[in-house]
Amino acid sequence: MAPALLQTISLEHLPESHTLHIALYRNLTNASFLHQQLLTGNTDFEYAFIDASVVRSLHLSLLFSPSQITHNPSIAPPSDSFYIITAINDALEERLKSRNIHSEIVFSLSMNNNIAESFRRFGITPTTTSLLVVKVAPASSASQISEHLSSVIEGEPVLFDEESLASMVDIARVKKLYKLNALGGGGKKGGANGVSGKAENKVDERKELEIMVLGAMALRGATN
């Protein structure tokens, strides 16, 4: 199995014991096995396994809060969402709604308070092919985490950045999950075949989708 491209991210105002370790995979072939480990409560697999096809933010703004990224040059400063941060803070203050901090991260992506539904929609399933892995642990655990992921995940590790996530997102599925209206198809075409215009339209669509999801999640925060 290929070695994990694990990235370790320290966050301001959070203890070193709650450092983020993140890895991203595509062409996953053993999702069924990984899913089963979660179902059986195997403590060796205490990770947030997120289906990367529904991680839709071009700037990862649904993962990090502003001014809290202290290490990772590939991540641009995001907007005002803070769902992983919220899950960590809830764990520190002993107010988790789910089993542990990693299940809470998956749960935090959902628009409602149905924990089981959030796992089905945003977590790993037997058919998942793109996987985002998040582990909250001391920074000193990076080597051990990387070795474990490399030994149990059968997939192609890729760099955790905006470009990789954008290539995996299923826009139609995200719109369905968040009950969003169809996005407009405007935009200017460029070149003789409109290739440049199509690429620009795709980026614009992802940006518009991000704004709409942020609004939906803000509504959840205001009503829950």
Automatic annotation (TrEMBL):
Compartments, record wording: Nucleus
GO cellular component: cytosol; EKC/KEOPS complex; nucleus
Regions that span the bilayer: none
GO biological process: one example: tRNA threonylcarbamoyladenosine modification
Domain of life: Eukaryota
InterPro entries: CGI121/TPRKB, CGI121/TPRKB_sf
Keyword terms of this UniProt record: Nucleus, tRNA processing
SUPFAM superfamilies: PF0523-like (SSF143870)
Record family assignment: Belongs to the CGI121/TPRKB family.
PANTHER family xrefs: CGI-121 FAMILY MEMBER, EKC_KEOPS COMPLEX SUBUNIT TPRKB
Functional summary from the UniProt entry: Component of the EKC/KEOPS complex that is required for the formation of a threonylcarbamoyl group on adenosine at position 37 (t(6)A37) in tRNAs that read codons beginning with adenine. The complex is probably involved in the transfer of the threonylcarbamoyl moiety of threonylcarbamoyl-AMP (TC-AMP) to the N6 group of A37. CGI121 acts as an allosteric effector that regulates the t(6)A activity of the complex. The EKC/KEOPS complex also promotes both telomere uncapping and telomere elongation. The complex is required for efficient recruitment of transcriptional coactivators.
The name this protein goes by in its record: EKC/KEOPS complex subunit CGI121
Organism: Botrytis fragariae
Top-level taxonomy: Eukaryota, Fungi, Dikarya, Ascomycota, Pezizomycotina
